[in-house]
Design a protein that fits this description.
binds zinc ion, about 180 residues, single chain, mainly alpha
Length: about 180
Amino acid sequence: MKFRTKNILRELAKHLGLKVKFVSYFTDNIHGKLLPRERRILINANKPRCEHVYTLLHEFAHYLLHFKKPAPRRHCPWYLKLNWKIDAAADIASKMRRIIRFVLNSERGKEWEADLWAMCGLVYLKQFGGRSDLTAFLNRHPEKKWIYRLAAIATVYSETKQRIATAFKLLGMARHGLPGKAS
Ligand SMILES: [Zn+2]
């Protein structure tokens, strides 16, 4: 885990009031566990680092999306941005949206949602820590590649949306006069 990535994850845990503990007693098929009432995340210490990053993001997502509603929307712009990316992902096709809404109510849907959130997080963290965690994780989990594709599309899509919004803002400014003077 790159220093910067570690710092961001630590900040996020702190912001959410969650304690993270690495334990070695989990069996190989368990990556981590969220104990929402104790506000604690247990991570399987025997797994490689790329798994730690993903598992942490996945458990953060469970806490944010499935236990702590509504999420605090101050002071932490990066996960706000992430939530927006999830919205963008859900928005890609209206047909898909109906399916997503149906699926999200089920237990499997929650796993899927946490995975998508975590993947968007991994894509987001790439700009600070490089591709290594993402590449290593995808090599270990080829079955999650389609979630990555969706996250990548969502990222591009939300950035396009942002760019369009900025363009409109500039257009508005041009109409109202000089930038800065616009109300
Ligand atoms: Zn899960």
